[in-house]
UniProtKB/TrEMBL annotation:
Residues 15-291 form the FAD/NAD(P)-binding domain. This is Rubredoxin-NAD+ reductase. GO terms for molecular function: oxidoreductase activity. Keywords: FAD, Flavoprotein. Its cofactor is FAD. PANTHER family: NITRITE REDUCTASE [NAD(P)H], PYRIDINE NUCLEOTIDE-DISULFIDE OXIDOREDUCTASE DOMAIN-CONTAINING. Belongs to the FAD-dependent oxidoreductase family.
Amino acid sequence: MNTHTNPSQIPQAGVVVIGGGTAGWTIIETLRKLDATLDITLITADSGDRYIKPQLSAAFSQNKTAATLINKTAESLAATLNITLLAHTVVTSIDSHAQTITSNHGMIGYHRLILATGAVPVLPANLPCEHTWQINHIDDFDKLQRKLATKPNQHIAIIGAGMIGVELAEDLSRAGHRITLIGRDQLPLLGVLPPIAATRLHTALTDIGICYLGDTHIQSIHPNQGQYQLSHANGELLVDEVITSTGLMLDKTLAASAGIDHSQHGIIVNPTTLQSSNPAIYAIGDCISIYGKPCRFVAVLREQASAIAHHILGLDHTGYQHKPPMIRLKNKAITVSITGEPTPQAWHIDNDDESLLLLSQRIDDTITAKIELKAPSK
């Protein structure tokens, strides 16, 4: 393994991966399994230490810290995989014609480039980042976890009642905090879930003490004597901490500088090879868009990595075949799982009793999507 602080000291690399998260390490591992001598360089803006990102929304109640969430350090992984690691290196632009990357530490060339840069939080202007937390990285989790460890029983507002917001609400509630979950819809996860399912989720959350403030748009946040005052159309709310979970989007900086096709959902890739509009540049994970939709699923990363690695190395492969995996919320108050590709069409109720709600959508006699909400065992 080589560790450099100055990319300009490195000769043109064979394959360069930008992004040291799960997607980046997955493609590196896959390439190395197929080619023991391939020149691979990883550029990451942080340390690159490996952790499982979905665990962040369920770690507070388990008394986890950033240190205990890290599985392996980047340096140990780089040594094992025999790659060049450029940690704490921020890429500022990509010249796709010259096939060079410019960073805060210099320039490096590439033969093939793989973008594994993830997605960034969507933060409306009325929710300034200096007053809110976004749990999208282990460093964000670390700062909030350290603060809450010294201040138990805090009143925390979570703005955004999507999947991550719902998971964080329960996790922080079980960690001993008072939670107000704020959403624009009447019910949490409405839109992802039909009303009958969202109602059951709402009941499960309120039963464990979470307050859901629906049909609510936060207009402003202001510091107030060590707390934060949230203003909305129906009044005001005073809390100790504010977490925003208002969605993710692509940071377009690198895609724009490289001149590759992209949208707010991600870098537009070939659905089989995961090449961008520039054939020397590939993308994987949260930063890609397939068929006009974001593809933010950890479960499909190995399949994506296999397709990219085989294509780069010129090995036979059927290519990536995208199928949305099962989505399972990490909530314990009620188990929620979604399979298939739900559409706005009506749902068929297959089971509706106190312990289990089972819904399905069908085309002819074929089930195309399922939703299951299961109460915990008593």
